Amino acid sequence: MKQRILVVDDEPDVLELVEYNLAGAGYSVITAADGAEAVAKIRTHQPDLVILDVMMPEMDGTELCKLLRRDPATADIPIILLTARAGEIDRVLGFELGADDYVTKPFSPRELVLRVRSLLRRGHQTEEKGDLMTFGDLVIDVPRHQVSVQGKPISLTATEFKLLTTLAHRRGRVQSRDKLLRDVWGYQESIDTRTVDTHIRRLREKLGAAASCLDTVRGVGYRLLEN
Taking CA atoms, which of 23, 39, 44, 97 is between 20 and 30 Å from 150? Predict the structure, then answer.
């Protein structure tokens, strides 16, 4: 069964370009021209991933991203932001809102397809060892793709789950930002390291009482501490 992708953009040329390339890569593609249409199609079609333009009239991409992350029914859908705004603050804002990846216009269709493929794999692939891992109040159930703290389920995006399990499988060992960018995001070149920092901050907020197990090693990177 083909994986279903929703592309949301108010520019018809961009919709056509992205749809053509994703369909050519074997995906089933749905399109929407604005936020309201996107919400309706998400409820109807339940996409596996959403590519979301930031600059749209009425409900812009950031508002739609927040809406999707607040709703338990859509909180786990991977989101790629697609925008002409390439500034660092815009990337950081997108990640803080819960986006999994960020592609700037003009973009390479081939790169976008690779980002989509990497992100969809991210939601399903984990290292084989350690099916159930416990760190004090934090429990990571890899086969079920579930995380709980003090018995309470925690909703994580595909990227957040992959980041957490990567650190968990390498417990106690410091992981540099560049290594995490390669192993979690699939980036082959060093980019803005705040990508990692922003996701770590979001993870700590969600883990609450268990956040202390995520340790920062200044000037180096991050590690998950064993209790």
Answer: 97
Note the pLDDT tens digit of each residue in 73-82.
888 899 998 8
Q: How many CA within 13 A on the CB side of residue 79?
A: 30
What is the SS3 assignment for 137? coil
Q: Which two tokens stand for residue 23?
A: 């369909």
Cβ atoms within 10 Å, residue 16: 13
The values of phi and psi at residue 183, to 5°, are -80, -30
Compute CA distances 206 → 47, 56, 152, 212, 223, whole Å: 24, 29, 11, 12, 17
Beta bridge partners of 25: none
- pLDDT tens-digit readout, 150-187: 999 998 888 899 899 999 999 999 999 888 988 888 77
Supply the pTM of this predicted model. 0.68
The reported pLDDT for the residue numbered 191 is: 58
Look over the chain and give the mean of its residue pLDDT values, rounded to a whole number: 86
Q: Residue 92 CA to chain centroid, in angstroms?
A: 13
Instruction: Please check whether residue 162 is in contact with residue 183, taking contact to mean a CB–CB distance below 8 angstroms.
Output: no
Q: Report the C-alpha dihedral over residues 204, 207, 210, 211, rounded to 10 degrees.
A: 0
Please report the domains of the chain, with CATH numbers, ordered by start residue.
4-122 (3.40.50.2300), 132-224 (1.10.10.10)
Which token pair is 34? 């604005």
The single-letter DSSP state of residue 188 is S
Q: What is the pLDDT of residue 128?
A: 47
| Residues 6 or more apart whose Cβ sits within 8 Å of residue 44 | none
